[in-house]
Design goal:
CATH topology of the largest domain: Rossmann fold
Number of helices: 9
Number of domains: 3
Helix content: 10-25%
CATH superfamily of the largest domain: Peptidase S8/S53 domain
Distance between the termini: 46 Å
Radius of gyration: 24 Å
CATH architecture of the largest domain: 3-Layer(aba) Sandwich
CATH class of the largest domain: Alpha Beta
Shape: globular
Structural class: alpha+beta
Number of strands: 27
Amino acid sequence: MKYNGDISVLGYPTEILSETYAILNVPERDIASLNGFAEVEYFELPKRLSLSQFMDETCVSAVQSARGVHLGGDGVLVAVLDSGIDYRLEDFRNADGTSRILAIWDQTQSGLPPPGFLYGTEYTNAQINEALKSPDPLSAVPHQDFVGHGTAVAGIAAGNGRASGGADTGVAPGASIAAVKLGERDNARFARATEIMRGIKYVYDLARARNMPLAVNISYGTNDGSHDGKSLFETYIDDMAEKWKSVIVVPTGNEGDAGHHCQYTLSQGETADIIFTVGASLSDLTVNLWKNFADIFNFEIIAPNGTTTGTMRYIGLPPVIHLDGALLRIGYKQPNHYNQDNAVVLRLEPDKNRGEIPKGLWTLRLGGEYIVEGKLDVWLPTAEEVSAGTVFLAPSAATTLTLPSCADKVISVGGYDAEVGTFAPFSGRGLTRDLRVKPDITAPAVNVRSCRPGGGYGRFTGTSVAAPFVTGSAALMMQWGIVMGNDPFLYGQRIKAFLRKGAKRDKKTAYPDEKWGYGTLCLKAAMDFLTDYVFK
């Protein structure tokens, strides 16, 4: 919620995120009544989000080495908002065996939450160190990363390689670490936007209390939104990115070749069919269509067996439509004071006599009644949220960025295969729906070696392992600038600007590019430009 004044007058359990943003736990039956409070400016329901050898490639080694700038991220806090962290690993310990992890907030557990929050369990550095002395650490600090994703991301951003004798060192091996295990209670596979917003406030509070620069890595994404950075989820992230000596890094997601985006321009009087297939064992499906509010469409939904809703308009829609054994709910989102466009949201569920949505070809038929612009974008959920074979028949790879990588103030990171030098086809692509340049930069995203829960190392693929290369790089830059006193304002958009400037670019591509952004990460070049501007 975006609010003003005293939000406590609403009378619901509240977590204050900042002076203008809050999370309220409101019964569904009471949501409409929120519009009657002068303190409420706008609200939205939480979105659900799914979950060495590249150091030379990214020019990090030259910055880490004694012959270079000799940086390790000391004095900087690297925060990983993900599936948790295996705090027992040697890669997250100091030479004396104590933990480099300042704090862990496990949102999926019940216990003692951090001050200002309503749930989860916080483990301090002192508690973690006590647990590490025990023959059974998990009995003292029962936090685990069952997925392994957060542990791998933390290893790339800030692992020190102690378990490999220094062979598998992360980008910022001297940085302190904070970990937030995101997730709904008892469900770490998915996180809602509100869990991420809570996590951001938590790590910002940690960094401020210790007067440490902060590099935040968020490796979750969703297709539920306008892809123009104007959701409250993303505007909150943008606001927080301006409140401290910080950088927020977000991957562009793995939707590039998933077939979950369709783009079309509808003409006056034209009828167009947007066709998508539904795979097996799918119990719910949400389709988001965004368009210019000035355009007037009619639409029709046709099920695989040919059953149709008939031609419909936005006014007077029934709450539920029965269609080929499925329940169809249609929502119409009008413009608000943050976004002048509007959306039509289609939600399919099986009816009570079926266990899944009918498989096969579904058609969204659109008719152009009064067209000013005609451009429309339609998104299916991310690959993690739907079954195989749930795709558009005529997809578009453009604007396959996931939220919150469309936020303006974050550094959005795409992925490439560093071993062969080619763009990773799964990497989410720009531009944003309002034509801003995203991604900002690309980093290695294929077969990246990092830490595994339980010990040892594994190979990981996806843009979520590209992002921590940039997160760790930002930590090194902030050590040089803020901790060492060379550039006290080296954070936020200034770091983004120098990373963009120093990116490697080939002569065959016109930059900025919808795949590569400003090019591939080259920290040494960014630092060279930075020192030139600061000292010359």
